[in-house]
Design goal:
Layout: E1 2-6, E2 14-15, E3 18-19, H1 21-37, E4 42-46, H2 57-73, E5 77-80, H3 87-90, H4 94-98, E6 102-105, E7 115-119, E8 122-129, H5 134-141, H6 148-164, E9 171-177, E10 179-180, E11 199-200, E12 210-214, E13 220-223, E14 226-228, E15 245-251, E16 257-263, E17 270-275, H7 277-282, E18 293-298, H8 307-314, E19 318-323, H9 332-340, H10 345-357, H11 363-386
Parallel strand pairs: 1-4, 4-5, 5-6, 8-9, 9-12, 10-11, 12-14, 17-18, 18-19
Antiparallel strand pairs: 1-15, 2-3, 7-8, 13-14, 15-16
Length: 387
């Protein structure tokens, strides 16, 4: 069976205030043509269809167009909700849409109930694991402590139990939206840390033939059977080095995987430039970036006058301006930035406690801080769902 694995469309999202709807529509057209050109048997979309729980009308219209075009091909599509989606809203009408070959899996309770498709070699069971917010689904899965690994492990137990009851030789595909250990994040993914831990081990997914992951925006291979497709478009300058693509996956009769990357259309290249303003304006080596979306980091010791206007004269698509003046290593601003670099909210809070009272938090206090951060994240998620 031939699968096309994609994820993280983020319909409705802008890139530094530049609308991406045109580029997103072009991607949908490219997706449909790819399905036709490569004789794809099934499309899998691993979450974050929309960029927020209540998407703008134009994004909803684009999604509606995508569903109609995919259904018209007669090629089944299996789709899950991600952490940016409202699972309930995305899943409205799933039962009716199912009849058109578009299979929306947004309910955690359905984790062990697959969409079963067939090819010449027999059945393939597709299990949709939507984004599982631990605090909201722990009761559904009967786990005592909310955590990404515990709820995903419980969901995969249901998958394996269902698979064990199926005919021998049934091949299996799992769609999941999660941060799996070994994946490389970018700046444009929303933090899903719970209990101080965001990542789950790849071993959670043992026992299935292919795992189609969503959430991280860079296309990457964790194992031959576990892959992220990445987002089809860039949503932050941290993705400047990404090659935006989809995975074309062939599952043979025994469940072995053969994978090929298919490039997505690029609306405009990204460039991250760094240096003194005058150097950026004069350097002939930067000519190839004059039509790119540009993030410029200025290292001038004193902020120059009208930097954005002057940059835009040469790089008309400059979208982001960062000031990082060159300073001596003992400058207080430099040392403070270095102390914060790479530290998460929990670590920063613990540092603050140590600074205020002269000693860091004990294990009980660390647990209180961790629970407080988890409660805030869960509350934010509930507010998104309720909107």
């Amino acid at each position: 069976m031939r699968l096309l694995h994609t994820s993280d469309w983020h319909l409705g999202r802008a890139f530094h205030r530049v609308s991406m709807l045109g580029a997103q529509a072009a991607f949908i057209g490219h997706l449909v043509e790819t399905v036709r050109e490569h004789a794809v048997d099934a499309v899998v979309v691993s979450g974050d269809v929309y960029d927020r729980a209540v998407p703008p009308l134009a994004a909803v219209e684009l999604f509606d167009d995508a569903l109609h075009r995919l259904a018209a091909l007669g090629v089944p599509t299996v789709m899950i909700s991600g952490n940016h989606d409202s699972a309930r809203r995305l899943g409205v009408g799933a039962g009716l849409i199912d009849r058109a070959g578009i299979h929306l899996r947004t309910a955690p309770a359905e984790a062990g109930t697959p969409v079963v498709l067939r090819d010449a070699h027999g059945p393939v069971a597709f299990y949709g694991l939507p984004y599982l917010e631990p605090a909201l689904v722990k009761d559904e899965f009967g786990v005592e402590r909310a955590g990404h690994e515990t709820v995903l492990a419980a969901a995969m137990d249901r998958v394996r139990a269902d698979l064990a009851g199926r005919a021998p030789g049934t091949r299996s595909v799992v769609l999941a939206h999660a941060f799996v250990t070994g994946g490389q994040p970018s700046d444009s993914e929303r933090d899903i840390t719970v209990g101080g831990v965001a990542a789950v081990p790849a071993g959670v997914f043992d026992g299935v033939d292919y795992v189609a992951l969503g959430h991280l925006h860079g296309c990457q291979t964790l194992t031959e059977r576990i892959r992220y497709s990445g987002s089809p478009l860039p949503y932050s300058f941290s993705e400047a080095g990404h090659r935006k693509s989809m995975w074309l996956i062939d599952l043979d009769a025994g469940g072995a995987v053969r994978a090929e990357r298919l490039d997505c259309p690029v609306p405009r290249p990204l460039a991250r430039l760094r240096g003194a303003l005058e150097d950026l304006l004069a350097d002939p080596a930067l000519t190839p970036h004059e039509e790119a979306w540009v993030e410029a980091t200025l290292t001038d010791p004193v902020r120059p006058a009208d930097p954005m206007a002057r940059l835009a004269a040469r790089f008309p698509h400059t979208l982001a301006l960062v000031f990082d003046p060159e300073r001596s290593p003992d400058d207080p601003d430099v040392s403070y930035a270095r102390r914060l670099a790479g530290r998460d909210d929990q670590q920063i809070a613990e540092d603050f406690v140590a600074h205020v009272r002269g000693a860091g938090p004990d294990p009980r206090e660390r647990a209180v801080l961790r629970d407080a951060f988890d409660a805030v994240r869960a509350d934010d998620t509930l507010r998104e769902v309720a909107r």
